[in-house]
Known about the structure:
Blueprint: E1 7-15, E2 20-30, E3 33-44, H1 48-55, H2 60-80, E4 84-89, H3 91-95, H4 99-110, E5 115-116, H5 119-127, E6 140-146, E7 151-157, E8 160-167, H6 171-175, H7 181-195, E9 201-206, H8 208-217, E10 223-225, H9 226-237, H10 241-248, H11 252-255, H12 258-272, E11 276-278, H13 284-301
Parallel strand pairs: 1-4, 4-5, 6-9, 9-11
Antiparallel strand pairs: 1-2, 2-3, 6-7, 7-8, 10-11
Helix pairs in contact: 2-4, 5-13, 7-12, 8-12, 9-12
Amino acid sequence: MEMGNRVMKYAAIDIGSNAVRLLLCNAVNEHGVVHFKKSELVRIPLRLGEDVFRTGKIGEKKSADFMKTMQAFKLLIDVFQPISYRACATASMREAGNGKELLDKVKKSCGLEIEIISGKEEAELIYSNHVEEFLSNDHSYLYIDVGGGSTELTIFDKMKIVASNSFNIGTIRWLEGKVNKEIWDEMKEWTRSNTAFHQPITAIGSGGNINKIFKMIGRKSKSLPFEKLKELYGQMKDQTLDDRMEIWGLNPDRADVIVPAAKIYLSQMKAANAAEIIVPQFGLSDGIVHELHFGSVNASLTGI
């Protein structure tokens, strides 16, 4: 990469169980330091997981909506003219019996290449190039990413990953009544046993719901105390959907999933004995952009 190329454009698509997102982003080199500046973030609440977790495949209506959304995203990418893009699909597409077939249709219709990634790859992309700035050498952290179909967990100690796992527990799966009690207990036990010797520990949260909760509480610092989150959860779970929309100004597609999300974060924090959760406010699309940029920079430096 030449020093004159101060701005590099990237695009990232995150196909989740609740929403699909397109991030158009500029990587700006300012005096040797790269800053990522969002040009646009488009979020469409398709809720692919509603069909998949209920029937095992994506239905005709959602398939048609998905095709239109991906065609629109491809047009926006073409206009933005990034040097590179990557589109990743997660839990619902992993489990959909017709997932690969649908992605092949998208490729044929508009040329958009979409890859289905594992829960492990998803977690790696989200925390890659992000988490380091929030870690301390002498502290332990439990990284929690709650999506619509799965929850990714990673434990850091002395800046190193010591354990990670992915569980089929997510907000849309929860609303569909598809969260298995055995898996719920297994996830809590995994966290309890794997964090027992890494104390004290702080949680790090990512995902649209924890980002929204952070804004709702109006925190000035980057961390949120367990008791504050518990208090908000107690208020929201006793409110109707309409109440949550009116009182907190939530969109309908956020007002229902935010309660199970808060429960999952609280459950994991309690299992790890974490008194607070840091909310850096990034997600999979941000991780994809970081990976695209630093991957391309490293490739150019090594002559690949």
